[in-house]
Amino acid sequence: MTTRTPAKYTTGSIMRHVTVSSFTASIGLMAIYAVDLIDLIFISMLGHEEMAAAAGYASALMFFTSAMNVGLSVASGVLVSRSIGEDDEQEAREYATSTAMLVMVAGIAIPLILLLNIEFFVGLLGATGKVAELAATYLWIVLPFTWVSGLSMITVSSLRCYGENRLAMYPALFGALTNAVLDPIFIFALGMGLKGAAWATVAARLVTLAIALYPALKRHQAFVRPSLRLLWRDLKTVMHFASRAVLANVATPIGTAIVTREMSKFGPEAVAGMAVIGRMTPVAFSVIWALSGAIGPIIGQNFGAGHVDRVKRAYLDGIKFVAIYVLCVTMILFAFRGPIADLFNAAGLTRELIYLYCFPVALSSFFSGSVFVASASFNTLGRPSYSTWLNWGQHTLGTWPFVIVGGMLMGAQGILIGQALGSTIFASIAIWLGWRLIKNPPQENLRQRSHSALFGHGSLIAHTLQKHAGDK
């Protein structure tokens, strides 16, 4: 049965919407990353430093496929939320379906390319010998199920666009619980080691997809029947948003790869330290990471409904929320930096890097969070290229020279500090550019912008008549 859902975010307190959406979205997200962190704890308990380093290299490469899925889910969120804001749920379902089909195609093709050249890619990150072999083994198990993760993200994004924050939280939560239960069984009881962690991740992805699809289909019929005709019809419109969002998100693993490669010059201890930080960051700041997906529908619904003042308020409240949260979490990390390092049996350089991250480097997450808010405004207001260029700038020009110089001057610690300093420059530009766009938003609506930009005037008429003949 289909439930007619009003544009929930066009009324009520914006800060409340931002807070509730971020925290509910983060519960499932935090559960996922918490299990990833537990994976690393279990692997560390095996007493093999090579396994922890291999997990770090595998994570760096998996960031690329994850970025692709996140980018497509961002595009889905933009298109679906704005269609709902314009009171056109049929169009919202069609866009959700088109994006879901695209994420499945990409989720099969791109991992296939990576796996056929796996030795080259892990070597490019700096992995060699036994560590490279272990990383490749892990990736051969997990990467073929990239499409499952992508489809889950699209479905959860659709639920959030309908204002179903609670239901959008459950898929990741139950997936994480599945992973947490299977991890010790596969890793220790069955003696599968790193392979066990990989298969537990696969099982979690399948459970996440099942839990997401059921309410999306039953409550909102969030998808229509898939067809090649539908994919072809909406491909250019979807790609207008998706291509830029994917490119913007791929920039993050590029930056991670640069940092990982530079860290590899200081040995397995440095890479293991980065692996811990890489798993710890999304757990500690999952609310900020969730904000990137949570604030998009809020801005999108209000923009689609023409509530410009509420769009401005959503942007400002999002920045304020990031500042308060990052400050609170950094103080907690600083207070518990010792027990955190002990949890991973960290010593030497690994321990030093964890301490440095807990304070003061963790404070730089404010800039990352602010970029998430700005990027949501760029994507939703029809300027996704802004997000693309700024993200690539931050993770290349804002990363490479800073980590190289930092490494030369201060060693492995300097790499962390350099990465944090570089992010402030492009984050400041993103905040300013986002506010400028918010104050002067584009006047045309979703159909005018996406179709006129992509099809031209003559094609626009034909496409609009074909797709929206029943609108009036």
Write the layout of secondary structure elements.
Elements lengths: L13 H32 L3 H37 L3 H28 L1 H7 L4 H14 L3 H16 L3 H25 L4 H27 L7 H37 L3 H17 L1 H19 L3 H28 L1 H7 L4 H11 L6 H16 L3 H12 L4 H11 L1 H28 L6 H22 L5
Care to describe what's here?
This protein has 472 residues and is mainly α. The chain has one domain (13-461). The protein is 83% helix and 0% strand. The protein is built from 19 helices and no strands.
- Helical percent range? over 70%
**In angstroms, what is the radius of gyration?**
22 Å
Low-confidence stretches: 445-472
Summarize model confidence as the mean pLDDT. Answer: 82
Structural class: mainly alpha
Q: What characteristics describe this protein?
A:
disordered C terminus; 19 helices; mainly alpha; 472 residues; 83% helix
